Amino acid sequence: MAFRNPVWERQWQVFKRNRRGYWSLWIFLLLFVLSLGAELIANDKPLLVRYDGHFYFPVVVEYPETAFGGFFESEANYRDPVVKDLINGKGWMIWPPIHYSYNTINYDLQVPAPAPPSADNWLGTDDQGRDVLAGLIYGFRISVLFGLILTILASAIGIIVGAVQGYYGGWLDLAGQRFLEVWSSMPILYLIIVLSSFVVPGFWSLLLILLLFSWMTLVDLVRAEFLRGRNMDYVRSAQALGVRTPVIMFRHMLPNAMVATLTFLPFILNGAVVTLTSLDFIGFGMPTDAPSLGRLLGQGKANLQAPWLGISAFITLTILLSLLVFIGEAVRDAFDTRKFLK
Amino acid sequence: MSLLRIRNLGIHFGDQRAVDGLDLDVEAGRMLALVGESGSGKSLTALSVLNLLPDAAHWQADELVLDGQSLLGLKDREQRRLRGGKVGMIFQEPLTALNPLHNVEKQISESLFIHQGLSRSAARQRCMELLTQVELPATEDMLRRYPHQLSGGQRQRVMIAMALANNPRLLIADEPTTALDVTVQETILTLIKRLQKELNLSVLLISHDLGVVSRFAEDLLVMHNGRKVEAGPTHRVLSAPQDAYTRHLLASEPSGRADPLPENAPVLLNASGIHVSFKGQRPSLFRPAPAFHAVDGVDLQLRQGETLGIVGESGSGKSTLALALLRLIGSDGRILFDGTDLRALKRSELRQWRRHIQVVFQDPYGSLNPRMTVGQIITEGMSLHFPDIDRQQRDTRLCQLLEEVGLSADSRHRYPHEFSGGQRQRIAIARALILEPRLLILDEPTSALDRSVQHQILELLKKLQARHGLSYLFISHDLKVIRAICHRVLVMRAGRIVEQGNTSTLFDAPQQPYTRTLLHAAFAGDTLPR
């Protein structure tokens, strides 16, 4: 339905014409979908085990070591040579391409951690012997997911506030604008540092705190669109038809406001990713056992003798942020009315 | 001898021909009116003389001669000497054609510096002369004013002064009065005519309004779809049009009268003491904002099946009055609709009442949501007011209505941008009619349309009124249209009613001087056959 609309259709055509943005979108989607299946790419458990005539799925189900004839009641450690021998004796295992999860510590390192890239750890290990590549894949996923959720929630709040302010105008608008000015002048980073001293930062608590201070981006844009839109003749006509106010806002005015929103979306996502990374970098972000690009960067800074840490995190971030900026540019072109005249 | 001579002019955008094989002559000291509907290529023709066409346009001509000098293959420098030198140009919208950051003196003297290299004091001298010529006060104060401090008519006079600055031989006026009120329109055209005579200018006047230009131009050239349809002295073309299209244009001038109203028609709308005011700018933080009275105590009655015309110039408060009657903006006073006071209704009750009063706006491009199909646009109100009607019935009703307003049933799956201005206005009318209203408020419904399309819309409105017994509140600045469709007329000025009465009485024997001015501007010296 949405794509049958000629306005959207034309914008999609213009978007496609920006080759860089178009390809960036596909590459980003590919990377994102791949990272969603991170457990299947980098894991310390095999994808499939055939043991004694039965199939086992260690990625999905926890099996005790005793299931494979071991001694311990705890979950099998498939990287343990003893367990490996037990299974391979009566069957076989299929491993993901990378034999480490983000928190797997490689105890077989020949050199003290951080270890340089080797056949075992393709991008080396960090200072606790964890595989860098696995960390990057999981870190990418958590950054993008965090960014997406933050962006969607922040945009939703921003759109609603902007719409209400713009549609009703008057005192409501005036009060709202003043509140926004005060609220947006708060020093976010310091507030988070203070808050993190009595709230244990986790994925959701961090999201909530950041959300408190990041919903303002779209308010002004949407408000301006609604201020303009409420005087359009088709909005007046709808009012004269007796259409309810929320319906008018949603059906007649929101689609136009969405233009501004969609244009900003990749850039807001970018900002969210950067914020999370920088918090992790200075150590006020995610809990220390969570995979994180920011913490990897921090380790790179602390271990300058191990350049693979800093360089891999840097390149991953660069690619992620550049892709988003290229997509954002293409979206901006698509919504630029001057472009579609050509 | 002709001053400007064009032979076989062709302009095209890609494969699309905008002007095709056009011959045109502007005689020395005479005014040629180039008349055609929108999209006929008349403005492009004028721009090609100065080689000001947009980049996407390609053009060629066999001959393009101004005052004995061929303009084909001129160098950039020579072309610039031509623009603003031998040829002066006046544009349609004076607000956008004047630089908002330059005062009047700078606007006018810019081309004096460029073309004549005058000194500052000489240029100022010349500015004063020009101001006198265009009948503006030649004072220091006027020279120092900026465009936003001038009225529409004054801005257009400044534009004319700029065009005349270097004693051009040819003046090109592209719809010089379209953006102006009728009374101002009249004075501007009279001024151009006077200057033409006094300065022995040739004028190329471009217009869509045959009625207006025919009073001023000696010669006429009618264009249609980029081709010349007919040309010759004005009186000959008008009295004995050779071509079918010219006759069609002439027939499109609003004519006819409203069908008589039954004696006992009941009063449908009775509004009294309608008052709308807006807050102005606060003069200072501690003083209250002055109120601006947009509508100031208006009383009106409208009977069932009647068309009441509201006439006034821009800023007279007629559109504000319409919004107040629709209850879309707050107002004081009493609005009795079929005996119910609309101002006393609660929100939910008012929403139910809305189906009885519907509205059609002026701008056919702004009044339809570009992201909805025509079907969705028209049926939006149905689901609100007739929730029992199922999809099937709704679709049948939609097709019927589309047919009734003169559109094909297939249109319902298409989007507004695929339709022309006149067709969009039909869609807007259909949207209003599907609720079976009793009163339709028409706010300048034909002002953005070409005369011949205007004619069709007026005929449609009359037909619908006869069939459904609708009452119309018809707002317009165009007295010809008002006369053709209204039973009664109400003249507004600065928020108040100046005069009201039956159409024939008011038009034949206006009582108030303001009404007489309006009528004079619209009909004086009308050479068109009626």
From TrEMBL, chain A:
CDD domains: TM_PBP2. One of its GO terms (cellular component) is plasma membrane. Pfam families: BPD_transp_1 (PF00528), OppC_N (PF12911). Residues 140-332 form the ABC transmembrane type-1 domain. Keywords: Cell inner membrane, Cell membrane, Membrane, Transmembrane, Transmembrane helix, Transport. It is found in: Cell inner membrane; Cell membrane. Its main location: membrane. The chain crosses the membrane at residues 20-42, 144-168, 188-213, 259-286, 306-331. InterPro entries: MetI-like, MetI-like_sf, OppC_N. It comes from the Bacteria. One of its GO terms (biological process) is transmembrane transport. It is a multi-pass membrane protein. Belongs to the binding-protein-dependent transport system permease family. This is Oligopeptide ABC transporter permease. It comes from Alcanivorax hongdengensis A-11-3. The lineage of its organism: Bacteria, Pseudomonadati, Pseudomonadota, Gammaproteobacteria, Oceanospirillales.
UniProtKB/TrEMBL annotation, chain B:
GO terms for biological process: peptide transport; transmembrane transport. Gene3D superfamilies: P-loop containing nucleotide triphosphate hydrolases. SMART domains: AAA. It comes from Alcanivorax hongdengensis A-11-3. GO terms for molecular function: ATP binding; ATP hydrolysis activity. Keywords: ATP-binding, Cell inner membrane, Cell membrane, Membrane, Nucleotide-binding, Translocase, Transport. Belongs to the ABC transporter superfamily. It comes from the Bacteria. GO terms for cellular component: plasma membrane. Its main location: membrane. This is Oligopeptide ABC transporter ATP-binding protein. Pfam families: ABC_tran (PF00005), oligo_HPY (PF08352). The lineage of its organism: Bacteria, Pseudomonadati, Pseudomonadota, Gammaproteobacteria, Oceanospirillales.
